[in-house]
Amino acid sequence: MFSFLQVLPLCLFVSASPSQSMADQHESVSLCPPQADHATAAGHSWFPGPPPPMYSCTLTPELVAKAREELQEKPEWRLRDVQALRDMILKEHPNLRTRLDDAFLLRFLRARKFDYDRALQLLLNYHTGRKAWPEVFQDLKPSTVKHVLDLGFLTILPRPDPNGRYILFLQPGKWRPNDYPFVDNVRAIYLTLEKLIQPEETQVNGIVILADYTGVGMSQASNPGPSLAKKVVSILQDGFPIRIKAVNIINEPRIFKGIFAIIKPFLKEKMAERYVLHGSDLRSLQRNIPPSVLPEDYGGTAGRLDMSAWSRLLLDCEEEFIVEFCQPDPLEGVVLPDSMLFEGGQAGGKDEDAFRGLRSQLYYCY
């Protein structure tokens, strides 16, 4: 779990078109997620609700301009680009049971700056990751990770930063290996990311991660090996349509740098450069995340840290996640070329040997 968090700290409607008749016959038509009712939405007014069943852009003029500049998104071509990706899916992978609605496909186009081929690769990786890691994705719904949420392992800070980015806050020191399996933490984080990526503003702005490593010791640090880290890196870098813009680590122990050495080879250079280690220096943290966003616990002015609000939001979305994840394998009957297989599914012996050699050094440092 410790090494994983360094990687982090991670209605179906086809628009009218010439290809609509093909989409109407597609198996994914049954995977229509339910719309949140007004009472639920009102209860969580601090976080944007899911997109409407028929796509209508919800971006402000400022975000439209930002998407054009940073993501190569042209509003006048947006639905044409979505249709192009949809046509590629239906032609090249007709048996893939995936959502084909505009809002869903836009996530992948934005994450890959509207490059059709790279967006399709990301979509396939998104589904392949689920197949490669069934212990994480099988029966994935909030009620199955309620113990993780109740523990206060993660939350979303209620105020986005000045760049409009929501902050995923993690407390890995809350977890004890004897309490429950490590993969439950991964499941809770993945559900959170799935909810975070729904609003269009998150798709454009990305997210920030803040991880407080208070209480992390050798029991957490030595629990997962590089094969697990490699799986998580592959999912987050190449298999999930979200932009992680910064990872802030505070109160990290001395062993952190040693563990990070295991993960860094799997990280893309751009991602590795986005890690900022603050130690116990709150002023350093506040230079990256302003006090107006931080809770009082970290010298901020945003009130006391509330770990329960996000838990309630996720649990209220139980039905939505059942429809999204508790369905037949979307890759059943689909044959993918070797170039599109999930890279994190296997770990080489060299990775494990390196970890065994480093583990003794970690005990020495600790």
UniProtKB/TrEMBL annotation:
Keyword check for Signal: yes
SUPFAM superfamilies associated with the record: CRAL/TRIO domain, CRAL/TRIO N-terminal domain
Signal peptide, first to last residue: 1-23
Any Pfam family: CRAL_TRIO_N
InterPro entries hit by this protein: CRAL-TRIO_dom (IPR001251), CRAL-TRIO_dom_sf (IPR036865), CRAL/TRIO_N_dom (IPR011074), CRAL/TRIO_N_dom_sf (IPR036273)
Domain CRAL-TRIO: residue ranges: 141-306
Protein keywords: Signal
PANTHER family (alphabetical): ALPHA-TOCOPHEROL TRANSFER PROTEIN-LIKE, ALPHA-TOCOPHEROL TRANSFER PROTEIN-RELATED
Protein name as it appears in the record: CRAL-TRIO domain-containing protein
Species in which this protein is naturally found: Characodon lateralis
